[in-house]
Specification:
This protein has 6 helices and no strands. It is mostly helical. Belongs to the plant globin family.
């Protein structure tokens, strides 16, 4: 975890590069990447977004270890659900991001990587993704009630 904290911008950029390498069309889901042919290394919106992804996943990993599950603030969860729904994120996209995240973490920690570490990070991300997915499914129901 400390290795990742030391250079979040670098690993964040690597995460998004990995996502786009696997699924080039995913670039269009991010407003800050849509009009670019490549991933802009100095894009402040990209850096901020990627740092949030890392931070939330790290927090989920910590909570999973301490409490046995990830707990996300309701306001944050509603916002994440709304934004992901608005941008057309589907369940398979979460799996793609998970794979890219695990590759990035494995690259960052090098020899310290283990199957247990991969499983722990994967579980933390899965819980975070499941919470966002559940909120996305609530969002249309809430919108139609208004």
């Amino acid at each position: 975890m400390e290795i990742l904290k030391q250079d979040i911008p670098q690993y964040s950029l690597r995460l998004f590069s990995s996502i786009i390498e696997v699924q080039p069309a995913a670039k269009d889901m991010f407003s800050f990447l849509r009009d670019s042919d490549e991933i802009p290394q100095n894009n402040p919106k990209l850096k901020a977004h990627a740092a949030k992804v890392f931070k939330l996943t790290c927090e989920s990993a910590i909570q999973l270890r301490k409490k046995g599950g990830a707990v996300i603030d309701e306001t944050t969860l509603k916002h994440l659900g709304s934004v992901h729904l608005k941008n057309g994120v589907l369940e398979p996209h979460f799996q793609m991001v998970k794979e890219a995240l695990l590759r990035t973490i494995k690259e960052a920690v090098g020899d310290k990587w283990s199957e247990d570490m991969g499983s722990a990070w994967g579980e933390a991300y899965d819980q975070l993704a499941a919470a966002i997915n559940a909120e996305m499914k609530q969002e249309p129901a809430i919108a139609h009630k208004s």
